[in-house]
């Protein structure tokens, strides 16, 4: 009965579309907290510009998030901003989601790559110890947004 009322108002299709979008798997941004505000901002701007629903989870060094604390069943991609630890975390989550993207500038991330930490082919790493995490994240999402971030006039926000 309520659905018929929505149809009469022309709202049935938009609401059905919104519900479908909310039920689809979503990207997750897991970020190093509290010092990565600009990296999180860059990710937020990308997802805002592309109109994608996204979930953000903060991660602290003293109490790192565990994979069982994440809603893995509804996650498509995980973006790790300045965060690779704890040991084995990337390997564990990469087997449970479509894609893991590591955007980092810490030596521990480089060491993991050099020691060939076993990760799946669905793990993308962008690691550069000469740059800040915020600029790595901004450049990564800017490349993928096309003109999306530029349309928001955030080009001048480089960190």
From TrEMBL:
**What are the alphabetically sorted keywords of the record?**
Membrane, Transmembrane, Transmembrane helix
Domain of life the protein comes from: Eukaryota
Chain segments annotated as transmembrane: 37-57
| Name of the protein in its database record | Uncharacterized protein LOC132799433
**Which organism's genome codes for this protein?**
Ziziphus jujuba (Chinese jujube)
Q: What is the name of the gene encoding this protein?
A: LOC132799433
């Amino acid at each position: 009965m309520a659905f018929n009322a929505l149809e009469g108002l022309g709202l049935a299709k938009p609401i059905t579309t919104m519900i479908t979008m909310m039920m689809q798997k979503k990207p997750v941004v897991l970020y190093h907290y509290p010092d990565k505000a600009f990296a999180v901002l860059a990710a937020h701007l990308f997802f805002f510009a592309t109109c994608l629903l996204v979930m953000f989870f903060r991660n602290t060094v003293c109490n790192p998030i565990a994979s069982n604390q994440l809603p893995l069943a509804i996650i498509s991609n995980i973006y790790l901003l300045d965060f690779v630890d704890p040991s084995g975390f990337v390997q564990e989550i990469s087997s449970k989601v479509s894609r893991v993207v590591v955007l980092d500038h810490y030596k521990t991330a480089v060491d993991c790559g050099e020691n060939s930490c076993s990760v799946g082919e669905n793990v993308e790493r962008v690691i550069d110890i000469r740059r800040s995490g915020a600029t790595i994240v901004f450049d990564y999402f800017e490349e993928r947004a096309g003109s999306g971030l530029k349309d928001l006039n955030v080009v001048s926000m480089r960190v």
